[in-house]
Amino acid sequence: MKLILLGAPGAGKGTVAKQLTKLDGSVQISTGDILRGAVQAGTELGKEAQGYMDRGDLVPDSLIMGIMEGRLQEDDCKSGFLLDGFPRTIPQAEALTELLTKLGISLDMAVDIDVPRDVIFDRLCTRRTCENSDCQAIYNIKSMPPKKEGICDKCGSAIVQRADETEAAIAHRLDTYTEKTAPVAGFYEKLGLLKSITGTSSDVVVDGIQKALGN
Questions:
Q1: Active-site residue numbers?
Q2: Residues in Cβ contact with 75 at an 8 Å cutoff, skipping those fewer than 6 apart
Q3: Which domains occur in the chain, in start order?
């Protein structure tokens, strides 16, 4: 399958993507992953991106698209790919459409995971992340707490509340999403590629995607 997963922060895109990869071998791709991959590989585009990241600046769309072009042509994408939270803006969506046309790749659909704002707010406020940069396991103190309070099950490091997951930061992130990223769903709707699925359970969303694909 070749899908774009859209939805607000905390909508469950990453969880849904991980479940979908187990179905047919499709690979999960996020901009963070491809940027880190390019930096670690020491590619020219990776080195350029690292300069922006080290300064705390946003990596320009043109650079992201260059790295994305290389990523989509890697062997593991031949089985399919799931773009997790990308594109984030209309210009990125337009650039991605041009890139996919250039590469001769056809999307199956863009999935908008629709979760009520109050549910997302609660999810993110109670989410905790392993502070070990090599682990980054995610927990929820309500629905999926670690076996030992404050300690990661996987590596034993402390789990913390990220700075962008305080109530004020979450409200700002959701407002930014509504303003800049939500319109991307409309872009794909005009192309006839949008499937909106309402569900607070990843199983429900995955089932809806499978049905929409005719599986």
A1: 13, 88, 127, 162, 173
A2: none
A3: 2-26+80-212 (3.40.50.300)
